[in-house]
Amino acid sequence: LRLLPRQRYLRAERAEVSALQRKRNVLCCLITRVLKVEKQLHIDDLVFRVIDACQKGELGPGLQFLSFRCHSVDVLSCVLHLLNQGYLRRQEERPHVLEY
């Protein structure tokens, strides 16, 4: 029996998954922080505020050193995740407005 070394692509794939999870966690925290202040916000305004904060590096206390590109698809994916988890909700009469 001969032991083979671990494949490099497996390590690279795990690193990419870990980076994506960290990015999603940061975006979810940022979305929550924006909505805690605003209480309710149109989904388009929320997406633009989060993207703007990412571009400016205004991610919050302790996270200023993190700077990454985020796209509207990333933010919307996190919004859907937070809606499914019950952290956010939509208004009955105006489903495009999100509340914390």
TrEMBL record:
Q: Which domain of life is it from?
A: Eukaryota
Every Cullin neddylation domain range: 19-96
Protein name per its UniProtKB record: CUL9 protein
Give the organism the record lists.
Nyctiprogne leucopyga
